[in-house]
Design goal:
The structure is a homodimer.
Chain A lengths: L21 H4 L13 H15 L4 H11 L9 H16 L3 E23 L3 E2 L23 E2 L4 E9 L5 H10 L7 E5 L5 H10 L4 E5 L2 H4 L21 E2 L37 E4 L1 H10 L26 E22 L7 E7 L7 H23 L7 E7 L2 H4 L1 H9 L1 H7 E6 L8 E6 L4 H9 L10 H9 L2 H8 L23 H7 L4 E7 L12 H8 L4 H19 L7 H18 L4 H31 L6 H16 L18 E3 L7 E3 L1 H9 L2 H31 L9
Parallel strand pairs in A: 3-7, 4-5, 5-6, 6-8, 10-11, 10-12, 12-14
Antiparallel strand pairs in A: 1-2, 1-9, 4-9, 9-11, 13-14, 15-16
Helix pairs in contact in A: 2-18, 3-9, 9-18, 11-16, 13-18, 19-20, 20-23, 21-23, 22-23
C-alpha cells in the first residue's frame, strides 16, 4: 500500500479554501478540507486517516486490558516495573523505538492505617473493601489497603467535625455556626475538588487529622446501581488517592523543577512545600455512616446533607471521638516511564501522546482503558509504517509511572527534558481514564479545541452509529438535560451548539507539559457512570460488565487519538487557532475586570493588560489572515518549516519565567489549576488570586507578568505573519 | 380601667403626619403614628393595644391546647362536635355571642385501605404508624387509619411507576423517557404542591391508581432528627390528607356556590367536578422503600432521587406489582362551625378571625396551635370588654369544621352569607397551624401586607427578645442563608430589607373569603421544623417537646392577631394600601406581558389591560393623596363612615361575577391558587392559564374580564377620593 502524499497535484483540483477555522464553520456538512492542510494535500490525509482508522480492533484492546489489569500495579512496586517492561516490549513489536526511562521519588507505602470509634462506643473501622465471588480479582491479597499517599505518619484521638466537602466556603459556613475544627478530626466527603486541597485546608484550619469518605450521594447508590449489580460505588468501597499539594507543585516532592536522577539536589522532606502535614486517610460510606450517625451538635447547613439515611450533624463535641493511627514507610522508590518513538522524516518536531500506567489497584478504567486505546493507536501507526508510510514528524508515545501519587513520572521527564521539549514538542495529548462510559469529553488549550472537535467528526460513535461529534452534542444537550435546566424543551431540537471543550485544569499528566513547559495540550476520553474510581472494583470485571463490554469505545478512542496525531504529524501548517486563544483571553480578562470594577486601583492596574490582550487579538487576526493568504496554494517548504517551528512556541511565550506568585513551578500566565480547587482550571490565576486576596502588590506584579506574556505572544504571531507574507507567490509546483 | 378614646384632644398635640404608609418608611424608629389612625387617636390606640397584649398567657394557651388535643377529632365525627361545643362554651365564658352553625357535606370515612406488594414477592404494606411508649397518645385506638379523603373506592392490581412529585414537569420528563403511566399505579412523593393536583394529574394521565408517600428528603431524616428524638417525620409516619380538587372548587362537592343546608339542591356525586376518580392512598417512607427498592427500569432523571438509601428507578414493568383495595363509606355527614361575635358600637362592619377546629388526628400544630392562640386573643378582648371597652366594629371569631377534607365548613358559611359578608366584612384573618416553630411567616392581599408587618413590630419575639419583626427579618436573612445563596456574606449585615409577605394561594379557610367573596385576607403563623404534618405524631407531646415547649409563641401569635384585629376594628380610616395593590398588579402584568412578548396577538390582547392597570395605579395614588389630605385633622364621622364602607369593597370590585374560565367558583381576577399547584398563588390566573394553553379566545375573555375589574376598582377608588375631598375643612373639634 502506498499512502505517501501525491505531491504534485494541481491546486485547482481542490476548490475549497484553506482556512484555519473552516472546520468549525462548516459543521454538519461534508468536509472537503482539513484545518492545517493545503487543499492539494487534504485528500491524501483523508486517505491516510481512513487507512489508519480501519486497524484498531476491539479484540486487541480487550486482550491488552486483560493483561494490564492482571495484577495490582501501584507505583513504586515491582509490578509497576513489569507493566513498564511489557509496554516497552509491545511498542518494540509495533516497530517503535521504545525504552524505559527511570527516576526515583520520595514515596510512601502504608504500613499501618487504623481507625476506630472510641466514643460514644468502641468500634473498629478502616474496614477493607468487600470481595465479590463473581469477580475473583476482588479477593487479590496483593491489593494495597486504602490509604492517602503522602499522608504523614501520626496518631490522633480527638472529636470529629463534619465539614461537608471541606471547601473554603464550607469552612466559612462552619465559622458562621461558631464551630472550630482546631485540634479536631475533620470528616470530609469526596467531591467538589481535589482531595489534596481538602487536606491543605484542614491543615490551614488547624485540624489534627482528616478523614475522607465517599458519600453515596456523589458516586454511590444515589447516583445509580452499585457494583456488582451496576457501575456505581458500593457502600464498602474506598477511594484511594494522593493528597500531595500538586497545586503547589507536582512531581517528586524533594526535587521541584529538577529531574530526580542520581546526584540531583534534594530538599529535606520538612522543606518540601507540597507535602501534607496532618494524618489523612480515606474510608468507606459504611464506616463514615458509623461516625456520622454518632455525631451530635448543630444540624448541618443546607446542602451539606448527603445520601446516608439519617440526619447529618456538624459534631465537634467530645461525645464522638475517633482514634486514628497511620504509619507510612517513606523512601526513595523507583519510577519507570516508557518512551516510545515512531521517528518521522524529520526528528525536529514531536507529536506526543501519553497516559500513566501505574494504578491504585487493577486500574481498568484508570488508567488501563487509555493505555489499551493508545496501544491500538500505536499498533495501527506501526502497521502503516510497515506498509511504507513514514510520519512527517516524530510521534512519541509515553506511559508514565507514578501519576497517582502526584504526576511523578511525567513531571520528572518534563523537568529533565524541558529545553528539548520546548524546541520540539508540537503538542501533548493525554488519554487518562480513556473509557469509563459512552460520553466523550475533552479539555484543551484554546488553540486546539477545534482540532479535537474536528477529529470526533471522523469517528463513528459505537452506540448511535452517528459520529462521536453528534453523540457528544446529544449527550450535552439531551431532552432530559434541557428539561431539568429550563423546565421546558428547547423550541428547536435541531439546533445543536458546538460541544463544550473545557479549559485544562490539573489532575493528570498534561500538567507538567502545559503548566510548566507551555506545550499545547489536550486531555480527553469517554466518561460515563463510573463509581468505582480508585477502588479495588475498577477492574476487568467492571469494564467488561459496565464500562465498555464490547471494547468498541476503546477502539473509538484509539481512532480519535490517531486522527489527532496524524493531523498534527502531517499538517502543512500546524492547525493552531490563536484567534480562538485571543478570544478566550479577552473573555477571561473581561470577567476579572468586572470583578475589579468597584476597586479603582485594581481596575487601573488591569488596564494595560487589556491593551496587551487587544494587541494579542490583533496579532492573532493578522497571522491568521497571512496564513490564509498563503494557503490558496502550496508554499515554500523552508518558510513552512519556519512557521511550523514558531506556531507551537506562541504558547510558550505565555509562560512567566518565575512562575506564579507563591507557586513558581506553575509558569503559565493564562491557565492553572485553581489554588483552592486543585482539579478545575483557573483563568489568569495570578491576577485572580491577587483579586481574591485584595493584594495590590501581587496584582501589580501579576498584571505586569501577564501583559509581558501577551506582548511576547503577539510578537511571535507578528513574526509568523511576516514569514507568511514573505512566502513566494503561489505556484502549482509546491514542495 | 377606661380605655375609651379621648375624643376631643387638640390635633396639635400629635405632631406626626397621618399617612397610610408611614409605618413602612419609618422602620426601626419609634412610632408616633399608626396607619389608619388620626394623630389624635394614635396614642389611645397604643394604650389599648398595650393593655390588650398584657393579657394572653402561656399557661392558658397550654391548657387549651391540652384539651383540644385530648382526643382524635376528625370532621364528621362526634368528637368534632364535642370540640365545637367546647369552643362555643369558651367564647360564651369570655362574653362573646357564640353559637354553632351546622351544615352537612358529602364526606367519606375509610372502611378498608389495603396495599400489598404482589410482585416480585408478596408483602403486606399499608403499615400503621408506630406507637412510642413515651407518648401514650400514639397508642390511641381512635386515631383514624391513614387515608386520602375523597379517594373513590376501588381495587387495582398493576405495575408501579415512580413519578417523583407528580407535577406537570415530571410527567413531561417521563414522556421524554418513553414511560407511560396508563393503567399503572403511580407512586408520587409528597411535596411541590397540593396532593389533590397530584391526583388530578395522575387521573389525567390515565393512571389506574395513586400512592402518595413521604420521602425522608422532604420532611424526614434528611431534614432533621425524626420524632420522638426530634421534630421531623419518622420512617413509619404517614401524611393523611384530602385530594378533593379544591383548585376547581372547595367546600361540599355536591353544592358548589350554594350552602349545604337542608333542602339545598345537590349534584349527583358523578357530576361533581372536584371529586377524584382514581383510588388514592398515602403510605410511609418505610412502605414506599419496599416498593421503590423493587422497581426496575430506567434510572430516574436528575433531581428525582430522594433520601432513601438506594438507587431510585422509574419502574413500569410487570416485575413490580401492587394490589390496592380501598373501601370508602360516603355519606352526608354533619359539620359544626363555631361563630362568636364581640359586638361593636356598630354592627355594620365585621373584623373576622378564623381557623378550623377539625384535625386529622390530635392536631396539635394543625390546627390546635392557631385555635389556642385565638382563644387567648378572644379571652383578652373579652377581658377588655368587661373593663368597659367596646369595639368600634364587631369582631367575629370563627372555628371551622371540615377544613381538612376541603375547606368545607368555611366555604359553606361564606356561600350562605356572601351578601352580608360583602357588605360588612372588613377583612378575614386566618391562623391555621399558628405555631409549629419560631419563624413568623404570612401571606396577605397586597393592601394589607404592611398592616401585618407593622403589627409584628409591636410584639416581642420570645427567643431573641427583639421584636417579631426583627426576628422575622433575621430568619429570612440569616448569615447561613445568605452564604448558601451567594457564597459570601452581604457587605452590610445591618441592611435589613422588608420581610416577605407572600401572596394568598390556597390550602386553608381564607380561600372562600378571598377567592370567592373578595374579602381582603391575611394568613399567618409561626413555622419551623415541623415534620409530623397530618400524622398521629402532631400531638401535645410534639408541641411540648419541639414546637413550642413554653407556649411563648402561642402568646406571641395571640398578641399579633389581637393587634391586627384592634387596628382594623378601631381604625379611623381603614388602613388599606391600594398603591401597593396597584404596584403588585402592574408587576404581575409586566411578567405576563414579557411571556407574551413574542406572540403579537397575545401582546395586543393584553394592551388594554395595561391601560386599565395604569388607571388603577393613578386612582390609587389619587385616593391616597386625598386621604392624606384629610388626615391632618379629624374629619367628619359621616364621611369617614362612607369611606370606610368603600375601602374594603375595592377588593370585591376585582371579582369577575362569572369566575375564571373553567373554574367559575374562583372569582378573583388577580389571585387564585395555581390550577396545577393547588397551594401556591398564581397571579392573574385567567390570563396566565390562557397563555400556558395558547388559547386566544380565553385570553381575550380573561383580559376583558380583568380590565373591567381594574376599571371597577379604579372607579371605587375615585369615589373614595371624591368623598375624601368633600370632607369638611380641618377643625380642632372633630368627631
Amino acid at each position: 500500500m502506498n499512502v505517501s502524499k501525491p505531491k504534485k497535484r494541481l491546486a485547482a483540483i481542490f476548490a475549497g479554501l484553506f482556512c484555519l477555522s473552516l472546520a468549525a464553520s462548516s459543521r454538519g456538512q461534508v468536509f472537503e478540507n482539513i484545518a492545517g492542510f493545503l487543499p492539494t494535500h487534504a485528500e491524501a490525509e483523508r486517505a491516510l486517516e481512513r487507512e489508519f482508522r480501519l486497524i484498531p480492533d476491539a479484540g486487541h484492546a480487550e486482550s491488552d486490558l486483560r493483561y494490564l489489569t492482571s495484577r495490582p500495579h501501584m507505583a513504586g512496586t515491582e509490578a509497576s516495573h513489569q507493566i513498564a517492561q511489557w509496554l516497552r516490549d509491545q511498542y518494540q513489536s509495533y516497530g517503535f523505538d521504545a525504552q524505559i526511562v527511570s527516576y526515583t521519588a520520595w514515596l510512601p507505602e502504608p504500613r499501618d492505617v487504623e481507625l476506630e470509634l472510641v466514643k460514644p462506643q468502641t468500634r473498629a473501622l478502616a474496614t477493607p473493601e468487600a470481595p465479590y465471588d463473581g469477580d475473583p480479582d476482588t479477593y487479590d491479597p496483593r491489593a494495597v489497603r486504602a490509604f492517602n499517599t503522602y499522608s504523614p505518619s501520626g496518631e490522633v484521638t480527638a472529636p470529629v467535625v463534619y465539614v461537608n466537602f471541606g471547601t473554603p466556603d464550607d469552612y466559612r459556613e462552619l465559622a458562621a455556626l461558631g464551630v472550630s475544627v482546631e485540634g479536631k478530626v475533620v470528616l470530609a466527603r469526596y467531591g467538589e475538588g481535589y482531595r489534596g486541597v481538602k487536606a491543605r485546608l484542614a491543615e490551614q484550619h488547624k485540624a489534627a487529622a482528616l478523614i475522607l469518605y465517599s458519600d453515596p450521594e456523589e458516586d454511590g447508590y444515589a447516583a445509580g446501581t452499585p457494583y456488582p449489580q451496576g457501575p456505581w460505588r458500593p457502600m464498602s468501597s474506598i477511594q484511594r488517592g494522593s493528597i500531595l499539594y500538586t497545586e503547589i507543585y507536582p512531581g517528586d516532592p524533594l526535587t521541584p523543577e529538577v529531574a530526580s536522577v542520581p546526584g540531583a539536589q534534594r530538599l529535606a522532606p520538612a522543606d518540601a512545600a507540597n507535602l501534607p502535614r496532618i494524618p489523612t486517610m480515606p474510608i468507606s460510606a459504611n464506616d463514615a455512616a458509623v461516625i456520622l450517625r454518632s455525631l451530635r451538635g448543630k444540624r448541618v447547613p443546607r446542602g451539606w446533607q448527603g445520601g446516608l439515611p439519617f440526619t447529618y450533624r456538624v459534631g465537634g463535641s467530645s461525645g464522638t471521638q475517633v482514634h486514628m493511627k497511620i504509619v507510612m514507610d517513606y523512601a526513595e522508590r523507583p519510577l519507570y516511564d516508557v518512551i516510545a518513538k515512531l521517528h518521522g522524516t524529520s526528528d525536529d518536531q514531536w507529536v506526543i501522546l501519553g497516559n500513566h500506567h501505574d494504578a491504585w489497584v487493577f486500574g481498568a478504567a484508570d488508567p488501563g482503558s487509555g493505555t489499551a486505546a493508545m496501544l491500538e493507536t500505536a499498533r495501527a501507526l506501526g502497521t502503516l509504517a510497515r506498509s511504507g508510510w513514514k510520519p512527517r514528524r516524530t510521534i512519541v508515545m509515553c506511559h508514565w509511572d507514578g501519576e497517582e501519587p502526584g504526576l511523578l513520572g511525567s513531571t520528572e521527564w518534563v523537568e529533565q527534558n524541558r529545553a528539548e521539549l520546548q524546541a520540539k514538542a508540537v503538542a501533548y495529548i493525554n488519554a487518562d481514564v480513556g473509557v469509563a462510559g459512552p460520553d466523550f469529553a475533552a479539555s484543551a488549550t484554546p488553540s486546539l479545541k477545534d482540532l479535537v472537535r474536528d477529529a470526533t467528526r471522523e469517528v463513528a460513535d459505537p452506540d448511535s452509529g452517528a459520529s462521536v461529534y453528534d453523540a457528544w452534542v446529544n449527550s450535552t444537550e439531551s431532552p432530559t438535560h434541557r428539561l431539568s435546566e429550563t423546565g421546558r424543551q428547547s423550541a428547536n431540537p435541531q439546533w445543536a451548539p458546538k460541544p463544550p471543550v473545557g479549559d485544562l485544569g490539573a489532575g493528570s499528566d498534561f500538567s507538567p507539559f502545559f503548566d510548566y513547559a507551555g506545550i499545547a495540550s489536550i486531555d480527553m476520553g469517554f466518561g460515563g457512570d463510573y463509581g468505582v474510581y480508585h477502588s479495588i472494583y475498577d477492574d476487568f470485571y467492571w469494564m467488561k460488565h459496565f464500562g465498555d463490554p464490547t471494547f468498541a469505545y476503546h477502539v473509538a478512542l484509539a481512532r480519535i487519538l490517531g486522527t489527532i496525531a496524524l493531523r498534527l504529524d502531517e499538517a502543512d501548517i500546524l492547525p493552531f487557532d490563536y484567534s480562538n486563544y485571543a478570544s478566550a483571553v479577552a473573555r477571561n480578562l473581561a470577567d476579572l475586570q468586572n470583578r475589579a470594577m468597584h476597586q479603582p486601583e485594581a481596575a487601573a492596574i488591569l488596564k494595560p493588560v487589556g491593551q496587551a490582550s487587544a494587541q494579542f487579538t490583533a496579532s492573532a487576526a493578522r497571522a491568521e489572515d497571512a496564513l490564509r493568504a498563503i494557503s490558496a496554494a502550496p508554499s515554500d517548504p523552508a518558510t513552512e518549516e519556519k512557521i511550523n517551528r514558531e506556531l507551537p512556541e506562541v504558547e510558550q511565550s505565555l509562560l512567566a519565567p518565575d512562575g506564579l506568585t507563591g507557586r513558581p513551578w506553575f509558569k503559565h500566565t493564562i491557565f492553572a489549576p485553581g489554588a483552592y480547587a486543585g482539579y478545575s482550571s483557573q483563568a489568569m490565576p495570578g491576577i485572580s488570586q491577587a483579586l481574591d486576596d485584595s493584594d495590590t502588590a501581587t496584582l501589580r506584579r501579576e498584571a505586569d507578568s501577564l501583559s509581558a506574556a501577551l506582548l511576547r505572544a503577539s510578537a511571535r504571531l507578528d513574526e509568523i505573519a511576516r514569514l507568511a507574507r514573505q512566502a513566494p507567490a503561489p505556484t502549482f509546483e509546491g514542495h
